[in-house]
Amino acid sequence: MRILLAEDERSLSRAVSALLEKNNYSVDTVYDGEEALHYLEGGNYDALILDIMMPKMDGLKVLRRLRQQGSPIPVLMLTAKSEVEDKVTGLDMGANDYLTKPFSTAELMARIRAMTRSQAGNQVTSCLTLGNITLNQATFELSSPHGSFRLANKEYQMMELLLRNPRQLIPTERFLERIWGYDSEVELNVVWVYISYLRKKLSALKADIQIKATRNAGYSLEEHT
Known about the structure:
Layout lengths: L1 E5 L3 H13 L3 E5 L2 H10 L4 E5 L7 H10 L6 E5 L4 H10 L3 E4 L4 H18 L4 E4 L2 E4 L4 E4 L2 E4 L2 H12 L5 E2 H9 L8 H16 L4 E6 L3 E6 L2
Parallel strand pairs: 1-2, 1-3, 3-4, 4-5
Antiparallel strand pairs: 6-7, 7-8, 8-9, 10-12, 11-12
Helix pairs in contact: 2-3, 3-4, 6-8
């Protein structure tokens, strides 16, 4: 499952993101309401963890906009103890659940599982395909008629981004921002390392697509010519 985490407290965001990834969720993190809406418009997410108090646009406004647009995405609201009225308002506006800070990691995971359980049970497995390569978004499995690999979390996120944007140049900085986060101290060469991992797997699968590098610019997923 792919989750968008909208939380402006950086330390909490990093902790929750690490917890979700440890439990095999794919996570994108944003730090204000406007950015959350931008990501939701451009990405395919299975759930949203949404803090109420955020800059630029608060969580309630984000939720209102989503429901007005007809988005059915499950939403878990994060609230402070004093925000009782906001909890009620959020539930009335279409939030699926709320969690009061500070919260235990066990409770967070239990609420996410409960919130997404019915959705996952009714979902047809979603796959991304280009050429003879398929990426199963439910199992993280990259496959071809010649075999399969279960991708590690960041490998999966990179491959998913490439498959969602075939034949488009994706800047190296975008990989860093989307997968490691805006405040990450990871260097650009880590992207090359993970691209190398994916290339080896594609080669082993006898893929008829390849990851091309454009010097000092980024990477794109192309069919073999």
